[in-house]
């Protein structure tokens, strides 16, 4: 049975925490490099779906779309980049879904606190990360952000989840 003390699991958790730190620092180029070429970054609307390709999503990004999203976040004239929110995220409550010699799939909980234009916003989400373990470094091959309020209206955030 996979445990949180398994060295592969610890490597995966460290990468998830590193991703949170990189996003809070708005280091979007570094964030983009944390993903495998075939990875997907998904924010589904249906909290129960696993068929992201056929479902309705707020975000369903492959490599090309992640790159375009990063470009928008870095361009000063984009609404999402102008006065971008300052964020602090806490990722915890890790559970191991699957573990092999080459990958770890984790579930966790995220609380994201954002401050933009004199307003605070708090978002809660269930995260799924599939981490590919490699001798040259570990990378994310799937990230699913299941917002707890995904079926309600969500305004443009000005940050990546």
TrEMBL record:
InterPro entries: NTF2-like_dom_sf, Rng_hydr_dOase-bsu. GO terms for molecular function: dioxygenase activity. The keyword Cell wall biogenesis/degradation does not apply. It holds the Pfam family Ring_hydroxyl_B. Keywords: Dioxygenase, Oxidoreductase. Belongs to the bacterial ring-hydroxylating dioxygenase beta subunit family. This is Aromatic-ring-hydroxylating dioxygenase beta subunit. It comes from Rhodococcus aetherivorans. The lineage of its organism: Bacteria, Bacillati, Actinomycetota, Actinomycetes, Mycobacteriales.
């Amino acid at each position: 049975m996979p445990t949180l003390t398994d060295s592969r699991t610890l490597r995966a958790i460290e990468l998830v925490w590193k991703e949170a730190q990189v996003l809070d620092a708005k280091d979007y180029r570094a964030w983009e490099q944390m993903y495998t070429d075939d990875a997907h970054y998904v924010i589904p609307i249906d909290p129960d779906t696993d068929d992201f390709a056929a479902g309705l999503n707020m975000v369903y990004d492959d490599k090309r779309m992640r790159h375009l999203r990063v470009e928008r976040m870095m361009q000063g004239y984009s609404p999402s980049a102008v006065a971008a929110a300052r964020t602090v995220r806490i990722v915890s409550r890790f559970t191991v879904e699957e573990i092999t010699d080459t990958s770890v799939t984790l579930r966790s909980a995220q609380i994201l606190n954002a401050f933009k234009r004199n307003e605070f916003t708090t978002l809660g989400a269930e995260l799924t990360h599939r981490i590919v373990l490699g001798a040259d470094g570990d990378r994310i091959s799937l990230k699913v952000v299941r917002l707890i309020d995904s079926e309600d209206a969500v305004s443009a955030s000005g940050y990546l989840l």
